[in-house]
Design a protein that fits this description.
The structure holds two protein chains of two kinds. By secondary structure, chain A is an all-alpha fold. Helix content of chain A is 69%, strand content 0%. Chain A has two domains: 91 residues, Orthogonal Bundle (Rna Polymerase Sigma Factor, Chain: A), CATH 1.10.1740.10; 65 residues, Orthogonal Bundle (Arc Repressor Mutant, subunit A), CATH 1.10.10. Chain A contains nine helices and no strands. In chain A, helix 5 packs across helix 8. Chain B is mostly helical. Chain B has one domain. Chain B is 77% helix and 0% strand. Chain B is built from eleven helices and no strands. In chain B, helix 4 runs parallel beside helix 6, helix 5 runs antiparallel to helix 6 and helix 6 packs antiparallel against helix 11. Chain B is elongated, with a radius of gyration of 27 Å. The chains are: A mainly alpha, B mainly alpha. Chains A and B meet through helix 2, helix 3, helix 4, helix 5 and helix 6 of A and helix 1, helix 2, helix 3, helix 4 and helix 6 of B.
């Protein structure tokens, strides 16, 4: 926190621009780990705050999105596991509560989104991270880099996730 | 609704879920905004810091340990001669120092947490931190079965009184009570963890050490499985 407060105005502007550009990462992660709208909002803000604190140590030669994913997922997993505090609304996944299908979306899209969240909700926090990164079109190498496992492990786990989803939905 | 979701009209395969994911991405882009002003204005206090309770707990433990170091220092200033008073002073000072060091170690671990490191590495660090936190708390709490006697000996020693020589039965009874209490704690700990009382053991864990230690162990196991599979 102390580091963040010493950021120059330029650095703050730069951070705000980068965060704005990549903000969907924050929302996607928050959306995958918190079901209640208020918890999602809290989690998104907590991720943003952690990014802000960590930014002075960010190495520009490395990918900003990878850096951002690591922080966002670490904060989200800790949020779900209740490291130090708990989610305010501990509720099971409920399609009605999780307002993923908005009124403007088609019926089919709404169903798809509900199914997506139902599937995401079944996985452990770590498997959810893997699924999220895969759905976001990250390659095995990048997923391995973000999660800290080997590429082979990523491939094995994705094959298992694929099988489990197929079995669950059969 | 649930029945519909199981039917084939929704994505069945992992790769097919990507179109739903992209739809979600578009929706989130449209509907969400981050309160960047909160960050720019440094209103970070309003945002939860998940490690803050751990941090506060350790600061409290340091503040708790310091008076015992101070009390032992006061005793040294009086120049005690009795072996039992000197021994009590050493024990009390050691307790204060160890309590402070244990809390300092946890604070050191908290400071090392860098959320930008790979997910598995940080989650392991956090789980180990929880374990260390609970053990540090036990280190500060369990010795009190005996420590209250040590404190009384030191307090009496400040007045030049050797409590052990003056009231040996009283000190012996105190030590006996402490030993019995410690043994009872150990026995109860083992008894509550037998397989047939697993639920009770879990509830006791939750009440004595918080659910932290059990959760941390479970997390470390889950992380190891995730890494190995």
């Amino acid at each position: 926190m102390a580091l963040a407060t010493t950021m120059t105005t330029d650095a703050r502007r730069q951070f705000a621009a980068l965060l704005e550009h990549h903000r969907r990462i924050v929302f996607k992660v928050a959306n995958s780990y918190a079901w209640h709208p208020q918890d999602r909002d809290d989690l998104a803000q907590e991720i943003a705050a952690q990014l802000w604190r960590a930014y002075p140590k960010y190495d520009p030669s490395r990918s900003f999105s990878t850096w951002m994913y690591r922080i966002a997922l670490n904060v989200a997993i800790s949020f779900v596991r209740g490291d130090g505090h708990r989610q305010r609304h501990v509720v099971p996944l409920d399609e009605g509560l999780h307002d993923c299908a908005d009124e403007t979306a088609s019926h089919e899209t709404g169903q798809d989104l509900r199914a997506l969240h139902r599937i995401i909700g079944r996985f452990s926090p770590l498997d959810r991270a893997l699924l999220l990164l895969h759905l976001d079109d990250h390659g095995h190498r990048q997923i391995a880099d973000i999660l800290g496992i080997t590429e082979t492990n990523v491939a094995t786990k994705l094959a298992r996730l694929r099988k489990r989803i197929r079995e669950d939905m059969a | 609704m649930t029945t519909n979701l199981v039917h084939k009209e929704i994505p069945m395969e992992l790769d097919e879920l990507k179109s739903a994911w992209q739809a979600l991405d578009r929706k989130l882009e449209r509907e969400n905004s981050l309160r960047l002003d909160d960050l720019r204005d440094r209103k970070l206090g309003k945002v939860h810091d998940s490690l803050r309770p751990l941090f506060r707990g350790q600061v409290a433990q340091i503040l708790f340990g310091i008076p015992f170091i101070a009390l032992a220092t006061l005793l040294w200033m009086t120049g005690p001669e009795s072996a039992s008073v000197i021994a009590a002073g050493i024990v009390l000072q050691a307790y204060g120092v160890i309590t402070v060091i244990a809390a300092g170690m946890v604070l050191g671990q908290i400071a090392k947490i860098d959320y930008a490191a790979p997910v598995l590495q940080i989650q392991k660090q956090l789980a180990r931190l929880r374990t260390l936190y609970v053990r540090s708390g036990m280190l500060a709490g369990l010795p009190w079965w005996f420590l209250w006697i040590v404190v009384l000996i030191v307090l009496a020693g400040l007045d030049g009184t050797d409590l052990l020589t003056r009231e040996p039965e009283w000190v012996a009874i105190g030590l006996g009570v402490g030993a019995a209490g410690l043994l009872a704690t150990w026995w109860f700990h083992r008894w509550a963890r037998r397989a047939e009382r697993a639920d009770f053991g879990r509830r006791m864990d939750d009440s004595l050490a918080g659910s932290s230690l059990r959760k941390a162990r479970a997390q470390l196991d889950a992380l190891a499985r995730f890494e190995q599979e």
